Amino acid sequence: MLNKIEQDHQRFRQIVRGKIRKELRRFIARGDMIAREGGRSVSIPIYDIDIPTFRYGDNSGGVGMGEGNEGEPAGGQNGQGGEQEGKHVLEVDVTLEELADILSEELELPRIEPRGEHKLTTVRDKYSGIRPTGPASLRHFKRIYREALKRQLSMGTYDPDDPVIIPIKRDMRYRSWTQVKKPQSNALIVYMMDVSGSMGDEQKELVRLEAFWIDTWLRRNYEGIESRYIVRDVTAQEVDRATFFSVREDGGTRISSAFTKAHEVIEQHYDPSDWNIYVFHFSDGDNSSDSDNRLCVEILAKKLVPVCNMFGYCQVASPYGSGSFINVLRDAFDPQRAGEGKGSEKVVLSRVNSREDIFESLRTFFKAGR
């Protein structure tokens, strides 16, 4: 019976997985893939999957009984009934790991090969043996009865016709453990966002959706993830996640301030030999001056790119921004100019003009498995 239930459950999960994959673009674009986000899972609304259930009602009344006058629509509502079928909505809890795997399959993303020597380690308990003493919670019942059987056989008290095995104190066995150090691949994600007056609510929503999927994919590839958040207008400051996605400013813009702050965070807290570092900047492409554009290129080339696995620049459409900064980066870091010592494959550029562009933006960032 248990095997049958398990088979049915696995089949149901496969159906759900297929539905999610089929409508992944819609989930990404609309942001309705997260009805409720938990510690390690999200609740996703799936249409047209309904679990059969018994519905019990009150059968005490007959046809024509109850409140209401003759000719009044059922339920007391006016208007004509529709002809289209309703959509059944089922919320299904999916782990972030499953969600990342579905994203990987749909975008055909390769797994990331972490760089570094994995110097950081985590200490974990590993059950590796058996001992005669220990807490009751670690009792090993199979080994206990084996010891009791061996004792009764050696003493000649075991009766095959009446196979009763009664353990005594000296038969008790408990699991034992040792602490082992396991190398851990860690990654740092630095999110930077322009919060000047040209970045409105819709632009921030695009950033929120893209950042969620970036975070989901990288967590699937690394055991340890730390995220740092930087907002900037003319000046830059580090903030928490909630502030990052809710703050509103109305000032000028100087992109180099964010790059400088990101370099300070990395230099003070994260050794590039121990950490896989990903830096993402979200902006509408507006900057204060050509001189600041040149300063940004210098900071990237000398300070950020050398220590990063990837620097991703995502330019979101805004009716107020000039949108020219992506061209500055393209001219300075075109991968085809790497032979000249000027380009870099670590600098990845993406445009997101609407929510429908997020899907391809993610493919652009991670298709090389950096």
Could you characterize the architecture of this molecule?
This protein is α/β, with parallel strands linked by helices and 370 residues long. It contains ten helices and eleven strands.
Short description:
By secondary structure, the protein is of the alpha/beta class. 35% of the residues lie in helices and 22% in strands.
Which keywords apply here?
three-stranded antiparallel sheet, elongated, 11 strands, 10 helices, 22% strand
How much beta, percentage-wise?
15-25%
Instruction: Report how far the terminal alpha carbons are from each other.
Output: 46 Å
Number of helices: 10
Helix content percent band: 25-40%
User: How are strands sequenced across the largest beta sheet?
Assistant: 8-7-6-9-10-11
- The low-confidence runs, each spanning 5 or more residues with pLDDT under 50, are none
Average pLDDT, rounded to a whole number, is 77
Label the structural class: alpha/beta
Question: What is the CA-atom radius of gyration, in angstroms?
Answer: 30 Å
Q: Tell me, what's the shape? A: elongated
How many beta-strand elements? Answer: 11
SSE string, helices as H and strands as E? HHEEEHEHEEHEEHHEHEHEH
Largest sheet: 6 strands, mixed
Topology, element by element:
Elements: H1 2-22, H2 24-30, E1 36-37, E2 41-47, E3 89-95, H3 96-107, E4 121-131, H4 141-155, E5 174-183, E6 186-194, H5 201-221, E7 224-232, E8 236-239, H6 241-246, H7 255-269, E9 275-283, H8 290-304, E10 310-316, H9 325-333, E11 347-352, H10 358-366
Parallel strand pairs: 6-7, 6-9, 9-10, 10-11
Antiparallel strand pairs: 1-2, 2-3, 4-5, 7-8
Helix pairs in contact: 3-5, 7-8
